[in-house]
Each structure stands twice: as C-alpha cells, then as structure tokens.
Amino acid sequence: EAQVTQNPRYLITVTGKKLTVTCSQNMNHEYMSWYRQDPGLGLRQIYYSMNVEVTDKGDVPEGYKVSRKEKRNFPLILESPSPNQTSLYFCASSFRGFSPLHFGNGTRLTVT
Amino acid sequence: AQKVTQAQTEISVVEKEDVTLDCVYETRDTTYYLFWYKQPPSGELVFLIRRNSFDEQNEISGRYSWNFQKSTSSFNFTITASQVVDSAVYFCALSESISGGYQKVTFGTGTKLQVIP
Question: What backbone phi and psi angles, to 5 degrees, belong to B72?
C-alpha cells in the first residue's frame, strides 16, 4: 500500500531533550516536506527536500533540522525542543513539487 | 512572496444547503498549481483537486465543484447539498516555482466547515 509513515504518533518530552520524528514513504517520491499545524495558522512549511541531499528552509525552520540521505526517508530533528514547538506535525511527499501531496498521519508533539 | 488567503475561518450550514469556501492567492509566477485538501475530524489530510494556472475550466466531481478565476486570483470550492460527512477543515494551497527550479507549497489557514444535521 502506498503510504507515508510517520512515527511516533504522540510524543511528550521536556525542554531541551533532543528528539527525532521519522518519516518514510514507499512511493519513490522525489519531493518531501514537513509542516506544522497550529490553531488559526493552518499548515506552515518547516523544511522541504526536492531530492536526496537537497533540502531547503520553508517558512518556519528555526529550531528544526532535517536530512535526506535516502530518497524514502526524511527525518525531522529538534535538537533542543522548546514549548513553542508544541504542535501537530505532518510529513508529506509527492512525485514532484507540483504533484498532489501524500500526508502521513501526523505526530502530536508536546514539549513541557 | 506567494500567499494564500482563506478568509472564512469557520462556516456552519444545515445539511442539504450549498456552501462555498473561498480561496484567494497571490503569486508572481505565470506557472503555478492550486490545490484543495480536506482534513476530517479524524485528522488525516486528503487531496481533493489540483488545477494548473493554464487551465481555467471549472471542475465538477459529484457534489463538489471548483471555480478557478485568474482575473480575481481565486479558486473557490462549492459543496452542493452538503452532508454531515463533509464536516472538516478544508485547506487551499499554492505551489509555484522558486529559484533553482524548486517548487514551494504554501497553504492557507483553512476553513472549518460544520454541517448540522
């Protein structure tokens, strides 16, 4: 089944404790991206990647890192999480940037 | 910079009423794509439609229809004879080229539609 898999679904952590949210797709998509969803702000892009080893900042990249060493994986790294990064995170992929996005099921992160 | 505006934050309608969700976009590109996505209460995000900037034909799919007008930079979404299952947050999105041949996707803030039985 074609899908984007994000893990974990729920994560509660404390300020400053490094964490990684994994994202994997099995559709051989070139384009992958991370979004955060906050009430009243919609979906805001954190980082995106056009292909392996090609990444760029989205609209809200501060406090986040990504890497794209393999085509299928695009992990989101929070080196030192802070409470303002409490949010619902979505990973997405598409064949190309103009193609429809396939989304993961989301990761609800709480930073205390 | 590209921008997508969904001015309607929340809409409530009674079942079987028609409802239109507005989307206005800004872009300097001549080639771009517009999308609508649905997020039901269960939380997943589902693709509904894509339109490219050269195709202004309206689209109809069952009870759903989309009106793309470049003259007003709008890509509105109409649900005819709404049903409770249409209750969701709907997002409009714009994808355009940026430097280096890459594409950037920008979402609107979403419109929450509640269909009351």
Answer: -115, 10
> Which of B50, B103, B108 lies at the smallest CB-CB distance from A100?
B50
Inform me whether the C-beta atom of residue B41 falls under 8 Å from chain A C-beta atoms: no
Cβ separation of B110 and A35 shorter than 8 Å? no
Tens digits of residue pLDDT in B2-49: 699 999 999 999 999 999 999 999 998 888 999 999 999 999 999 999
User: Looking up tokens 């695009």, which residue turns up?
Assistant: A74
Residues 6 or more apart whose CB falls under 8 angstroms from that of B100 comprise none
Amino acid at B24: V
**A51 reaches B (C-beta below 8 A):** no
User: Distance between CA atoms of A100 and A1, rounded to whole angstroms?
Assistant: 17
Instruction: Please answer yes or no on whether A50 and B102 come within 8 Å at the CB atom.
Output: yes
Asked if the Cβ–Cβ distance from B110 to A43 is below 8 Å, we say: yes
Question: Could you give the 3-state DSSP secondary structure of residue A91?
Answer: strand
Burial status of residue A39 (CB atoms within 10 A of its CB: 0-12, 13-18, 19 or more) = exposed
CA A47 and chain centroid, separation: 7
CB-neighbour burial class of residue B62 (10 A; exposed 0-12, middle 13-18, buried 19+) = exposed
The pLDDT tens digits of the residues spanning A21-78 come to 999 999 999 999 999 999 989 999 999 998 899 999 999 999 999 999 999 999 999 9
